[in-house]
Recover the amino acids of this structure.
């Protein structure tokens, strides 16, 4: 008997062709689950898996080892001799080969691009899928399997242009920051204010929360941090569950950002106290992350910070001298392993109590 099929239309403005999807049985059946997974995968990939890695290498015109290296660079596992690749995989490797052969990008730079795309997209895909699966479980009714496949197609069609748009906007902003930081010594390193914001007592608190409550807490923390950092013109480097890492070009913008974070988090009843540590100095940037002594110092200052406070290093405190928007209060000097004697300062708004 021919398989019954349903028609899935793209969302408004998607500008893509409709996709035929099979109407599958209920997800309570293990076989049905596997069938649904296969159908969702085909919707997302856009084509069936038809090539082995060796066939892909032959079609692209590169040695098999090079094809596998590029594939691993994107963050994907080797599939061995299985027919695991689509026409899109062939096209992607051809683009990479042409990019390097044309001289537009050196092979070493292309390899960095490949790794950065793989790491970024892997996290984005996990994040997006978690939200989508939660929605599927909580909101959808009726024939679950059919709705899973339908929703996968619609979500992909609507999000794909948004991903390209966001990438271009962030690329423009990053390019502007890079040009702003240019020096005669090239951009191997630059001076930045680096800050960590950490939820106090998160580990202990997380043990007493249900998973759903913990998820809401982390989401509220990340959402609030993202909003404040963007509002203050900083850059969110990464989130670490109960901690965020951010950078700014100027010391005063970093301090204002840190104080705003403390104030914003205090307005959220679900969140515990926050502590912020900020250091200013030479920073090495690689693959969107930041490294160096300044980063390590900012992390250590966070650990020294009282609750609902912002603590800065001596260099940043000196840069704020005479700025009547802030009050600086010295803390005890103390030795820190690997960094020597550290001189932390607490920063407050004028007239506010000194955090203890």
């Amino acid at each position: 008997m021919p398989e019954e099929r349903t028609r899935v239309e793209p969302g408004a403005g998607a500008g893509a062709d409709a996709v035929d999807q099979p109407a599958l049985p209920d997800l309570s059946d293990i076989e049905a689950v596997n069938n649904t997974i296969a159908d969702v995968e085909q919707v997302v990939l856009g084509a069936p898996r038809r090539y082995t890695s060796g066939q892909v290498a032959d079609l692209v015109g590169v040695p098999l080892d090079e094809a596998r290296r590029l594939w691993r660079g994107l963050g994907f596992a080797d599939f061995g001799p299985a027919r695991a690749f689509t026409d899109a995989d062939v096209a992607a490797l051809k683009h990479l080969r042409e990019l390097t052969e044309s001289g537009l990008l050196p092979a070493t730079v292309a390899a960095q691009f490949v790794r950065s795309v793989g790491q970024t997209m892997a996290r984005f895909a996990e994040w997006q899928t978690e939200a989508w699966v939660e929605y599927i479980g909580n909101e959808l009714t009726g024939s679950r399997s059919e709705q899973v496949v339908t929703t996968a197609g619609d979500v992909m069609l609507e999000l794909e242009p948004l991903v390209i748009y966001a990438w271009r906007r962030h690329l423009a902003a990053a390019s502007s920051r890079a040009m702003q930081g240019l020096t005669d010594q090239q951009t191997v390193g630059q001076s930045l204010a680096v800050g960590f914001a950490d939820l106090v007592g998160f580990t202990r608190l997380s043990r007493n929360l249900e998973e759903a409550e913990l998820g809401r807490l982390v989401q509220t923390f990340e959402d609030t941090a993202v909003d404040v950092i963007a509002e203050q013109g900083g850059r969110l480097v990464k989130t670490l569950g109960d901690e965020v890492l951010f950078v700014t070009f100027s010391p005063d913008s970093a301090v204002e950002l840190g104080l705003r974070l403390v104030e914003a988090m205090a307005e959220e009843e679900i969140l515990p106290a926050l502590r912020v540590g900020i250091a200013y100095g030479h920073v090495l940037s690689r693959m969107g992350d930041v490294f160096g002594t300044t980063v390590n110092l900012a992390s250590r200052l966070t650990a020294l910070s009282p609750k609902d406070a912002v603590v800065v290093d001596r260099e940043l405190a000196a840069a704020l001298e005479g700025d009547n928007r802030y009050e600086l209060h010295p803390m005890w000097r103390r030795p820190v392993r690997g960094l020597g004697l550290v001189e932390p300062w607490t920063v407050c708004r004028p007239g506010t109590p000194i955090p203890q």
Notes: The chain has two domains: 5-179, 186-348. The two ends are 75 Å apart (CA to CA). The domain at 186-348 is CATH 3.30.70.1230 (Alpha-Beta Plaits).
